[in-house]
Design a protein that fits this description.
Helix content: 55-70%
Number of domains: 2
Distance between the termini: 56 Å
Structural class: mainly alpha
Number of strands: 0
Radius of gyration: 19 Å
Order of helices and strands: HHHHH
Shape: elongated
Length: 109
């Protein structure tokens, strides 16, 4: 019985630490609002860090394909070609944007 209690205590402590880290990450993003680093912090949190955390939950992906994290820096480097087409992209409201077009508009807003 003592061993089970100890395991539960460790699991709770680990979950509390994860929640503390999540709160700290959100605090940093909130504090960065209005700065040049804000788009990258927000993007990496949602599309990289959170996706990597979800991928680690192997039970979720037994019957379906796991999502793939997207890194802001490498994606932005690939976007430079679309930069010249930004106005065209914004004018065409009937077309679904690809990843690079979305990132281009995201980083500029």
């Amino acid at each position: 019985m003592r061993c089970e209690s100890s395991k539960l205590t460790v699991a709770i402590a680990q979950e509390i630490e994860k929640l503390r880290q999540e709160a700290q990450a959100l605090k940093l993003i909130r504090e960065a609002m209005g700065t040049e680093s804000f788009p990258q912090l927000l993007f990496d949190k949602v599309f990289k860090d959170d996706i990597e955390r979800l991928k680690s939950m192997e039970e979720m992906w037994k019957t379906r394909k796991p999502p793939q994290p997207i890194d802001y820096s490498s994606t932005v480097q690939e976007v430079t070609n679309a930069e010249t087409r930004k106005d065209e992209i914004l004018r065409d409201a009937q077309r679904v944007w690809n990843l690079h077009e979305n990132v281009l508009v995201f980083k500029d807003r």
